[in-house]
Amino acid sequence: MKFAAKLTVVISTFLCAALSLGGSWTVQQNFARVRQDLLRQRSRRQLYDRYALETAFAGQTEESLSILAARYEAEQRALTTEGAPMFSLFGENGTVLYSDLPHSISYADQQQALAAGETEATFLQGEGQYFLLLSTPLRGLDRPLWMVSAYDVTPQFRERDRQLGQQLLLQLAAMALTGAAAALASRRMTRPLRQLEEASTALSEGKSGAWVDIASRDELEQLGDTFNRMAGALEDQMDLLRQETDRQKRFVAAFTHELKTPMTAILGYSGMLRTAELPPERRLRAVNYIYHESTRLEALCRELLLLLGLEKGELQMEPVPVFSVYGEVRRSLPEWPLRLEWQGEQQAVVQADRVLLATLVRNLVLNAAAAEPKDNTVTVRCDRCDEGIRLCVEDRGKGIPAEELPHITEPFYRVDKSRAREKGGNGLGLSICAMIARLHGSPLELDSREGEGTRVWVTLKEAKP
Amino acid sequence: MYPVLIVEDEAAIADLIEDTLARLDYPCVKAFDGEEAATCIEEQTFDLILLDVMLPGIDGFALMDYIRPTGTPVIFLTARSSVEDLVRGLKAGAYDYILKPFAPEELLARVDGLMRHMGKRSRSLTVWGVEIHPDLRTASRDGKPIGLTPREFDLLMMLVTNRGMVLYRDTLFERVWGLDSEASTRTLDIHISRLRKKLGWEHQLRSVPKVGYLLEAER
């Protein structure tokens, strides 16, 4: 059952109960007063009849009683239009001496009225008519006599029934109206709930853009706001996950490629060598390929291990003079065909892992050289800035296209694949640099313009002297 | 007969494929990136294209758009082993695919099979007067069939695809009988002498002492 329907049913039920209780209570109250009045009037009337009959019966024989009673009744009927007496007379042992009561009032009813005594009134219904029975003994006579008077009170009872019917009609009309109003109101009030439900369903099906617009200025509006925030956060999370999965997929694809290419060459050439006696030049070429591809595999293995080791994040931090790191890198490139220049603070000492910092600078310098700088120069620059020491490697080479920049530190990502491979790169260099930078608490920042050159820098903490 | 186009950015592998196909006298043209390949496809006609999927510049899937109008059959070379990639390649119109790393023999067999199937190469080859049907696995001389056992035929194919080169005994045995065969290399010697007799190659199929066997190349 819908919530709106439940609300409607609950509201209507309570309203209906209240209306019918209130309505019938009012009718019954009114009728109780009417009965009271009737009783008072008819009691008085009976008293009057009793006195009249007592007087008439005084000293008369039992045989003449019925005649006298009939005469009295006829007289009274002629006199009064409403509430004319109808009565029966009983002698000892319940013998009926006279009766003018309609058939619908049975002997048993009369006996009951007699038993109830003088003070009690009995209401009777029979054959579409209502009667009020009152009983009283006739006093001051030489024998015991009882009189039961019946009064027709049908109009009063009819009036009550009419009122009850009217009340019922009124109640039905009120019910229909309020029911409709309640249904409308609850639909309106539960509209935010329906919106929330739709949005949650959309969200659970993984659809994006699931949000609600509730302006009911109550708890539901707050709930809607909270829901929107939750949906937003969830969507962000899903985006992140999707990106991460994409990255992993790219990594696996690139890694397989990186692994399978040298393996294909090694297996193929060695297979060739061990099958048949090749001419010397082909044998040499095969052996050379096997050697170079194995070297590539070995380098890939080494760098991957370095990258994995870095992910564990074990560092040996110590004060390291930046200039000495530069010297180390310079010495590690003895047959360097380009010019390597130093600029800036020679005295700067940073808090870093010496070996990793040297790897970082060396990789950046090699990358810069691969960009084929126009002036054949790679510059290492060291400046003091607000956050610490900024170590920057610059070249005036061909630069990196803007759309490639976000991916540049992903493992195996290459801007120019064939060229990079000729130079022996395997696409892990910048990933390693980014990882080293992160371990030193700094992002690896790149600023590059295609055709103009690239600047890559990290910001390191200065060591306390 | 048109050459085979090898589109592969790794020189090592391109050379390997070229060397392998040269054994069955397939002439080759090599392209090292997508653009070079696209130029080759525009300027020349090829019997077959061997296409690496991961290429710098235009990638293998994109190259298919250039190749499709020419109707040239394509075999994909890929290091990706995910089913999606293979299906994508085949849907793009590739005839077959070869996963890296591949054995040169496998490549040769697939290329040769495809070429003969497409009718680009004769269904049979003739070496020293013996006509060989690789598909039917039969051989004949002067129209008279020569009865060969399956092993003998495998051995014959190994010798034919490497004719002019001395084949090492151990490797030859391993290729024909498999790595975990119980038989000894003596079996190989027996098979060689039977082949010699059956095919009438008393002089052409030579034994090279301490090295292996050589089927002389025809001059």
UniProtKB/TrEMBL annotation, chain A:
PANTHER family assigned to the protein according to its UniProt record, in alphabetical order: SENSOR HISTIDINE KINASE TRCS, SENSOR HISTIDINE KINASE YKOH
Localization of this protein: Membrane
SMART domains xref list: HAMP, HATPase_c, HisKA
Top-tier EC class: transferase
Organism: Gemmiger gallinarum
Major localisation: membrane
Catalytically driven reaction(s): ATP + protein L-histidine = ADP + protein N-phospho-L-histidine
Superkingdom assignment: Bacteria
EC nos: 2.7.13.3
Domain spans labelled Histidine kinase: 254-464
Lineage of origin: Bacteria, Bacillati, Bacillota, Clostridia, Eubacteriales
Protein name (database record): histidine kinase
UniProt entry keywords in alphabetical sequence: Kinase, Membrane, Phosphoprotein, Signal, Transferase, Transmembrane, Transmembrane helix, Two-component regulatory system
Pfam families, sorted: HAMP (PF00672), HATPase_c (PF02518), HisKA (PF00512)
Domain HAMP stretches: 187-239
Extent of the signal sequence: 1-17
TrEMBL record, chain B:
DNA-binding region of this protein: 122-217
Domain OmpR/PhoB-type, chain residue ranges per copy: 122-217
Keyword rRNA processing: no
A Pfam short name: Response_reg
Residues in coiled coil: none
Domain spans labelled Response regulatory: 3-115
InterPro entries, alphabetized: CheY-like_superfamily, OmpR/PhoB-type_DNA-bd, Sig_transdc_resp-reg_receiver, WalR-like, WH-like_DNA-bd_sf
Lineage: Bacteria, Bacillati, Bacillota, Clostridia, Eubacteriales
Source species of the chain: Gemmiger gallinarum
Modified residues (4-aspartylphosphate): D52
Domain of life: Bacteria
Keywords: DNA-binding, Phosphoprotein, Transcription, Transcription regulation, Two-component regulatory system
This protein's name: Stage 0 sporulation protein A homolog
Function of the protein: May play the central regulatory role in sporulation. It may be an element of the effector pathway responsible for the activation of sporulation genes in response to nutritional stress. Spo0A may act in concert with spo0H (a sigma factor) to control the expression of some genes that are critical to the sporulation process.
